[in-house]
Each structure stands twice: as C-alpha cells, then as structure tokens.
Amino acid sequence: MNSKKIMISPSIIAGDLSTMGADVAGFDPGVIDLLHLDVMDGNFVPNLTFGPGFIRDLKKHTDIPLDVHLMIEKPENSLEKYIELKPEYIVIHYESTRFPARSLKLIRENGIKSGLALNPATPIEAVFDLSEYCDMILIMSVDPGFYGQSFMKNAVSRIARLKEYLISADCSDVKIQVDGGISEENIREVVFAGADVIVAGSSLFKGGDINQSALKLKKAALG
Ligand code: DX5
Ligand code: ZN
C-alpha cells in the first residue's frame, strides 16, 4: 500500500445542480476532501455554469472546503467576488489573463490558497517562473468546458515533468492538481506521476453513492 496522501475533489457540475444543496449535506468530509466548483463564463470556455451567488448558497450546506476553478476571461475583473466567499483554493487559468502573478498574489494576500491552471496545449514551462506564487498548479487533462470528456494521456508526462521541476526548484510544497476524465482506470498513473489533488466529475457522480465512489477511487489510486 502506497502511503502517499491524496485529496479527492468532486466536480459538482457532473451532478444535479438543482438538488446540490441537499446532496452536499450528505458528502462525508472524512472521504470528500474538497468540493470542486467549475465557474464557466461562456467566453473563456464555450459553456456557462454558475457564479458567486450559487457558491455562497451552496456553502451554507457543507463544511467541506471549496476549490473554485475559474474558467473565466480576465479573472482580475471579478476576483473580489470569489475572494469574499473564503474558499480554500481559487484557481485561475494561465491562458485567461495577461497578469496571472497579480491575481495569484491577491488571492494569497486574502488568506486563500492560490492555484494556476494550464490547458493541455500550454507548454508546461509557462508556469515555472510563477510557481513561487502558487500553492497549487492544475494540469488540465481535457480541454476545459465540459464534464464527461476523455482523459488526455499526455497529462501523465506533463505532471511528471512539473513534479521534477518543483523538486529541483525547491518548491515541492506546491501541490499538483489534475482535472478531466479521471476514473479508477487512470488515477493510479496520475498519482504515481506526482498528482496530489484529484478532481473527478462523471466517474464519481455516475454511481449512486458519492462517498462510496470516492473511497473506491482513493483505493484505486493507492492500493
Ligand atoms: C472541465 C472541468 C472539470 C470537469 C471534470 O472543464 O474543469 O472539472 O467537470 O469532470 P470529468 O471528471 O467528468 O471530466
Ligand atoms: Zn474543473
């Protein structure tokens, strides 16, 4: 048994958003480490989900820390609204702004952990000079916009290269998150490559019991 600790962050857009308040109340904080909230603006990505109002209401139903993934153009224009929600993490996209460092610093100054996401087409080296401003780096394993897409295998070598860099730069406390198409079939290889925080949408919500599904996913990763 591998002793590495990983975190599971269910992407709630793969569930039924109309009942999510009642649903999250049943999520076991002993198994579900974070709640992954995909904010999509219909501009940075071709899909629209929800904004800060929905997240504020959802938060009333759970003590599980929030992991806000902003897929929005120019996040600096609305970052304050997400900072007010006091999530555990706010993750912005490298491709969505000309000033990622400024936003990452603002997130941290407000006592929130900062994250920077990279689309599959963005060279991994793009984040090397920004890792000192990051508590987490998110390697997308699909093009963002929708849940239920197939895992892109090149994410595994991208995670491994990032991990190698973080160790060499003495930044090994920066967590690596992976998001897109993760299931019992591929979780082991992404964890082995260096991922610490695993987002999963359709693979967790397609079964009936999310707590059981998350436990199975953790077992598949480390067992
Ligand atoms: C994609 C989102 C993901 C997605 C994950 O744009 O950022 O979080 O909902 O869902 P699955 O695991 O089904 O790919
Ligand atoms: Zn996401």
Would you give the CATH topology? TIM Barrel
CATH class: Alpha Beta
Order of helices and strands: EHEHEHEHEEHEHEHH
N-to-C span: 5 Å
Work out the number of β strands. 8
Number of helices: 8
Question: What do these coordinates show?
Answer:
With 223 residues, this protein is an alpha/beta fold. The protein has a single domain (7-222), classed as Aldolase class I (TIM Barrel), CATH 3.20.20.70. Helix content is 30%, strand content 18%. An eight-stranded parallel β-sheet has the order 1-8-7-6-5-4-3-2. Helix 6 crosses helix 8. The longest helix is centred in the C-terminal third of the chain and has 15 residues, at 154-168. The model has no long low-confidence stretch (mean pLDDT 97). The protein binds D-xylitol-5-phosphate (DX5) and zinc ion. Residues 11, 13-14, 36, 38, 69, 142, 144-149, 179-182, 199-203 line the site of D-xylitol-5-phosphate (DX5).
Q: What's the SSE blueprint?
A:
Blueprint lengths: L6 E4 L9 H6 L9 E6 L11 H8 L6 E6 L7 H5 L5 E5 L6 H10 L3 E6 L17 E5 L13 H15 L6 E5 L7 H7 L3 E4 L1 H4 L4 H13 L1
In short:
Helices cover 30% and strands 18% of the residues. With 223 residues, the chain is α/β, with parallel strands linked by helices.
What structural keywords apply?
alpha/beta, TIM Barrel, eight-stranded parallel beta sheet, 8 strands, binds D-xylitol-5-phosphate, binds zinc ion
